[in-house]
């Protein structure tokens, strides 16, 4: 839909006819742009975008779609590798939402936009001037200055590329501080002259960097001589006529008389229905005269509703201080419920709804509006308020048909002043949903002459949604800022969206020690098991074949357990859970749970992996990061299986200690597991002890990530625990193959999952800790006297055979194919397998209770004592 079209009249024709301005270029240029006039000593005309969502209300899907499509073009231009290293920078105020949408299209690019709002305590990382703007100074205030210091491409996004001065100023400032090899300039329209185009090429050669340009359309504005003075006189004449109530051509002579023309003086419903197809509601009469009304009277708001969006705690409201891929995942997860809250608050008879953003706050309301558009039958439109003063003329050939004028309401640094909302008055909106950040939710907003009252004159229902203003915690007393999660392919072989690792990368540190040396150090008390890593076991060809055979036979069984535990979490724990898997055994399960939610409900649940170490607790810094970015009540800890329940107890104690020390509350320490043979938890997929193929291997089925490391010389008090990424094992990696094999069985187990979930909903799932009792009994019966050396269940037994020095394996009599891989590993390591009759688990692995180096022979096989 081209909302600038009015029965074939271009919304730039009024200016073109009076000033001789001509727009030439691509065929679609006039569909994208209209023209208006403004009082500005540098440029009289204003290019008014029909797809930007600033001055002209437009479908949010159209607005977002244009930005996202530009981002996709940037991604294609850069290629996968460079796009993964790119940073996107948008310009305030007009292009903050556009830049953010472009960043979404690029993929995982972090986003920052310039701002005209100084923030106390945040030092500028750069700045530049926008020479033609009414407010010229831009600040760059990233929370993490390193955001601008990388060497990947910098993508600069503005709504229009006219002279190139703003971009040159930006690149010049940033290149002096943070030089890089490549820049990409993105705009909805490229309106440079041939001379200006040459300047950009020359500048790129001057700094020795490549500069590319991506635009949706291109052309030029042909300006006759003296157009600036003519435009200024025309604006002054119409503003004066609006103030006096007279005609702009009354008594005109000379130059002014050339521009006089009959104009409509009444905002008719028909006019707005042709400008805004489908418009309904009350059209209001404006005072007679050529200029549309400023609506400075104090109207009465028929109905004002405040909406609690439940904005995720700690999530930035936009890119003023940076917006990372992890922030994007959190926002995507929260959007459907936020839009649903807006939909619920709308009057049921609303036929036409405007979602109105606030100056630089463009992206968040745009995304909520796009979700809302899909939820309601009403026609949804989106635009934002602005600092930019523009002449409003009620004529189909003019892009700004009406304007609302109201006082600034966010205590701006440059002092009080007027602000504007265009094409809202008389547009027939039944409801207006105004989005402001909390810095703008001030008495001025609610005053008799404030924006809310202005809106109340033109819509029977006004709704207010306040997004918390994000201010970085940069005081000296604040804990150190933690890095964003590590993601594939830079860290792990999982796709980036499947899991974020709250770990630090220790891939370049030598941490591996022979299994026997580690065991001796651990049992002698000389070292903790998390201070080193075992040498990664490389399975034989026979063992790999066994893994694949086990996966073929158990994939559907695993798929059902994944479905059951995920459905239980969604029903009982949180409708929008934040999955936090215990690295690394829990991580494949977390990914599968996330994929079940995608498969069944089309939702993308955030998923992170964190470290927990027996005897040391969970990574407190990871919990601190989670609490800062999510509601702790939504966090669901995920693991693969339970053994005797040691980690279950460890987690409960660690969370309690963290909450008491950090003053944070809401974390639920109960783990959700795929299998709970130890009867240690209430949230599980099954309590059967069966082979989960991801237990058969180490890093090669867990994204090529090692087990986690906690060592004082490597992990400081403000660091995440560490782990290694074994890139060199990529040839043996089956991590994604394991996931795909299970996901492929999702569709066939839906009915059985639903039936199992119904049964569990009414079952007594109280943990009996049967497994713990069995472990204590075995420890005493076999003279071990240390429950930590008894590893119950198929998964734990497998890990003993792969990573520790096993003594013997206890197998339940009659156990079948689930133990084929255990028997093979035991045979290869010379470990006896003893069948027992009464055993709550399929098998139990016993670590050598009296370990010394002499407990193994020269071939590494166990020696019985």
Concise structural overview:
By secondary structure, this protein is α/β, with parallel strands linked by helices.
Architecture overview:
There is one protein chain. With 865 residues, this protein is of the alpha/beta class. Helices cover 33% and strands 19% of the residues. The chain contains 23 helices and 33 strands. The strands form ten sheets. Strands 1-10-9-8-4-5 form a six-stranded mixed beta sheet, with helices on both faces. Helix 4 links the parallel strand 4 and strand 5. The longest helix is centred in the middle third of the chain and has 32 residues. The protein is elongated. It starts with 12 loop residues before the first helix and ends in an 18-residue tail after the last strand.
Average pLDDT, all residues: 82
As a whole number of angstroms, the C-alpha radius of gyration is 32 Å
Low-confidence stretches: 1-5, 131-136, 246-299, 521-527, 852-865
In total, how many beta strands?
Answer: 33
Strand order of the main beta sheet, please?
1-10-9-8-4-5
User: What is the percent of helical residues?
Assistant: 25-40%
Strand content: 15-25%
Shape: elongated
Major pleated sheet: 6 strands, mixed
Question: What is the helix tally?
Answer: 23
Give the CA-CA distance, first to last residue.
Answer: 83 Å
Helix and strand composition category: alpha/beta
């Amino acid at each position: 839909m081209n909302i600038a079209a009015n029965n074939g009249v271009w919304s730039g024709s009024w200016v073109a006819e009076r000033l001789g301005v001509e727009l030439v270029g691509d065929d679609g240029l006039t569909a994208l742009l209209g023209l208006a006039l403004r009082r500005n000593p540098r440029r009289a005309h204003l290019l008014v975008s029909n797809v930007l969502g600033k001055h002209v209300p437009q479908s949010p899907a159209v607005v977002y779609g244009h930005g996202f499509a530009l981002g996709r073009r940037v991604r294609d231009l850069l290629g996968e590798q460079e796009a993964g290293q790119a940073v996107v920078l948008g310009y305030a105020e007009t292009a903050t939402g556009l830049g953010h949408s472009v960043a979404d299209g690029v993929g995982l690019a972090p986003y920052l936009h310039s701002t005209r709002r100084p923030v106390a305590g945040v030092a500028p990382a750069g700045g530049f001037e926008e020479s033609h703007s009414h407010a010229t100074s831009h600040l760059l205030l990233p929370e993490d200055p390193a955001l601008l210091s990388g060497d990947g491409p910098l993508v600069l996004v503005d709504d229009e590329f006219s002279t190139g001065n703003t971009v040159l100023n930006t690149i010049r400032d940033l290149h002096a501080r943070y030089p890089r090899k490549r820049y990409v300039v993105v705009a909805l329209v490229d309106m440079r002259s041939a001379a200006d185009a040459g300047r950009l090429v020359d500048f790129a050669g001057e700094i020795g960097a490549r500069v590319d340009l991506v635009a949706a359309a291109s052309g030029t504005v042909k300006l006759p001589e003296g157009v600036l003075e003519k435009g200024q006189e025309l604006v002054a004449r119409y503003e004066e006529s609006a103030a006096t109530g007279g005609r702009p051509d009354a008594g005109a002579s000379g130059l002014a008389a050339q521009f006089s023309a009959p104009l409509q003086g009444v905002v008719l419903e028909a006019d707005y229905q042709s400008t805004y197809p489908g418009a309904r509601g009350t059209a209001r009469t404006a005072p007679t005269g050529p200029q549309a009304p400023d609506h400075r009277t104090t109207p009465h708001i028929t109905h004002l509703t405040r909406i609690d969006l439940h904005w995720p705690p700690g999530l930035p409201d936009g890119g003023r201080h940076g917006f990372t891929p992890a922030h994007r995942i959190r926002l995507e997860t929260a959007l459907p419920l936020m839009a649903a809250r807006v939909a619920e608050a709308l009057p049921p008879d609303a036929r036409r709804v405007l979602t109105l953003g606030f100056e630089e706050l463009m992206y968040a309301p745009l995304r909520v509006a796009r979700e809302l558009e899909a939820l309601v039958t009403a026609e949804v439109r989106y635009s934002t308020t602005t600092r930019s003063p523009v002449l409003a003329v009620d004529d189909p050939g003019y892009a700004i048909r009406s304007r609302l004028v109201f006082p600034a309401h966010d205590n701006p640094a440059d002092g009080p002043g007027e602000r504007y909302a265009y094409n809202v008055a008389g547009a027939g909106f039944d409801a207006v949903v105004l989005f402001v950040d909390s810095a703008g939710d001030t008495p001025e907003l609610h005053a008799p002459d404030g924006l809310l009252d202005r809106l109340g004159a033109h819509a029977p229902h006004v709704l207010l949604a306040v997004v918390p203003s994000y201010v970085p915690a940069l005081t000296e007393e604040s804990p150190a800022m933690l890095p964003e999660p590590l993601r594939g392919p830079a860290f792990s072989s999982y796709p980036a969206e499947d899991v974020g690792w709250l770990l630090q990368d220790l891939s370049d540190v030598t941490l591996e020690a022979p299994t026997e040396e580690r065991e001796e150090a651990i049992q002698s008390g000389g070292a903790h098991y998390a201070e080193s890593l075992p040498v990664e076991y490389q399975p034989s060809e026979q063992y790999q074949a066994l893994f694949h055979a086990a996966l073929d036979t158990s994939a559907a069984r695993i798929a059902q357990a994944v479905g059951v535990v995920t459905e239980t979490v969604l029903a009982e724990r949180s409708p929008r859970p934040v999955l936090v898997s215990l690295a690394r055994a829990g991580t494949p399960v977390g990914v599968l749970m996330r994929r079940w939610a995608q498969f069944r409900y089309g939702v993308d649940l955030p998923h992170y992996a964190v470290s927990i170490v027996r005897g040391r607790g969970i990574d407190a810094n990871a919990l601190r990061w989670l609490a800062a970015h999510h509601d702790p009540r939504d966090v669901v800890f995920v693991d693969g299986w339970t053994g005797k329940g040691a980690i279950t107890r460890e987690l409960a104690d660690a969370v309690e200690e963290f909450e008491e020390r950090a003053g944070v509350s809401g974390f639920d320490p109960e783990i959700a597991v795929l299998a709970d043979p130890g009867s240690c938890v209430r949230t599980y997929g099954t309590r059967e002890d069966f082979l989960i193929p991801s237990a058969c291997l180490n890093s090669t089925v867990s994204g090529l990530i090692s087990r986690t490391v906690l060592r004082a010389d490597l992990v400081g008090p403000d660091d995440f625990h560490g782990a290694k990424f074994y890139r060199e094992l990529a040839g043996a990696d089956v991590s994604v193959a394991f996931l795909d094999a299970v996901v492929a069985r999702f569709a066939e187990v839906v009915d059985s999952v639903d039936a199992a979930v119904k049964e569990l909903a009414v079952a007594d799932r109280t943990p009996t800790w049967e497994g713990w009792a069995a472990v204590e009994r075995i420890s005493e019966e076999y003279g071990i006297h240390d429950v930590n050396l008894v590893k119950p269940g198929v998964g734990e037994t497998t890990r003993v055979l792969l990573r520790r020095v096993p003594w013997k394996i206890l197998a339940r009599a009659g156990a079948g194919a689930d133990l084929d891989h255990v028997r093979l590993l035991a045979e290869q390591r010379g470990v006896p397998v003893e069948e027992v009759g009464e055993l709550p688990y399929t098998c139990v692995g016993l670590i050598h209770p009296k370990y010394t180096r002499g407990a193994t022979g020269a071939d590494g096989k166990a020696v019985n004592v």
